[in-house]
Specification:
Elements lengths: L1 H7 L7 H5 L9 E8 L2 E8 L9 E7 L6 H7 L2 H8 L2 E5 L20 H14 L3 E11 L1 H12 L6 E5 L18 E7 L10 E4 L5 E6 L2 H11 L7 E5 L9 E6 L8 E6 L15 H4 L8 H10 L4
Parallel strand pairs: 3-4, 3-5, 5-6, 6-7, 7-12
Antiparallel strand pairs: 1-2, 2-4, 8-9, 10-11, 11-12
């Protein structure tokens, strides 16, 4: 049950995008790539901005949830069109067996070195001149969001900022998460997420079954990263104006005065589900909850990332 539930939860539903995603088009600035790592051929999709210089770019790595893959994640989010408008590179890597080893041990092959793979991908894209090694950022949803936070724990000398959606910090990795340098952290979570509980506790499968993995609440996760980054003890709170759906208000808790100009921001989406704000409603509301239209995750993340550099 544990492995199957782990595959189902934390992004299982994103797998549906695999059936909907279009074939990657060369003329769109998107291409498939691969690197050899740890005895395996690891794959990814890379989008370079159309009509912009294609060297020394900021790099955003976007991680799918369990059951998904890179091409589906490109479709779920709006990062590729945003990259075309503003000029950065986006990599959408593929987890082995459509999952990431986020440190919880709830995967089929827990020895998979995904930290090593993602750092090797960064190294590959910086060595070939595509990416600026001082401006590397990671975003992810669910299992991918937890993997992004694990990278902040273990690769703070490489990753300048992280954005995690529908994914709070797993209890299992909290004690050993000791980043060497501050990492700016942006969190987005819906109060009605049916899989990863907003208030913390046991992660459940889409069928409502417990998975054996527990996470901190959104508030506790934000406090954790604020403490690691040496931020102010208390956040500044504000509300975003509702524009489309007045019943899905968005609250922001911002921790400032952090070391090395880092920042921690936590967005609470009232009534939001296990979804990417501003992205596709990729499955019915009764399965994953509702997608907010009052917050555009991609644009908020990019504005946040631009303020952080190594």
């Amino acid at each position: 049950m544990g492995v199957r539930a782990s595959l189902a939860v934390c992004g299982f539903v994103v797998a549906v995008l695999a059936l909907r995603a279009a074939v990657v088009r060369q003329d769109s600035g998107t291409r498939a790539g691969n690197i050899h790592f740890d005895g395996r051929n690891r794959t990814y999709v890379l989008h370079l901005p159309a009509g912009k210089p294609r060297a020394g770019l900021p790099l955003v790595i976007v991680l799918h949830g369990a059951g998904g893959h890179g091409r589906g994640m490109e479709r779920l989010t709006g990062f590729s069109p945003l990259a075309d408008r503003t000029g950065f590179a986006v990599a959408y890597p593929d987890g082995l067996w459509r999952q990431w080893n986020d440190g919880r041990g709830r995967i089929a092959f827990p020895r998979t070195d995904d930290v090593g793979f993602l750092l090797a991908l960064v190294d590959h894209l910086t060595r070939d001149g595509t990416a600026d090694p001082h401006r590397v950022y990671v975003a992810g949803i669910s299992n991918g969001g937890m993997m992004a936070q694990r990278l902040a724990c273990e690769a703070s000398d490489t990753i300048a900022a992280v954005a995690s959606v529908a994914a709070t910090l797993p209890e299992k990795i909290e004690p050993d998460c000791l980043p060497q340098r501050p990492v700016s952290m942006l969190l987005m979570h819906g109060t009605k997420d049916p899989l990863v509980p907003y208030k913390g506790g046991m992660i459940t499968s889409p069928h409502g079954m417990p998975t054996g993995s527990r996470v901190l609440s959104l508030a506790a996760t934000a406090r954790f990263w604020a403490a690691r980054d040496g931020c102010a003890d208390s956040p500044e709170s504000s509300s975003l104006p509702g524009r489309v759906d007045g019943n899905m208000t968005v609250r922001l808790a911002h921790y400032g005065s952090c070391r090395d100009h880092a920042a921690v921001e936590a967005y609470t989406i009232e009534g939001g589900g296990h979804t990417w704000p501003g992205g596709l409603q990729y499955l019915p509301v009764f399965v994953i909850g509702k997608t907010s239209r009052n917050l555009n995750a991609d644009e908020r993340m990019w504005e946040f990332f631009k303020r952080a550099a190594r």
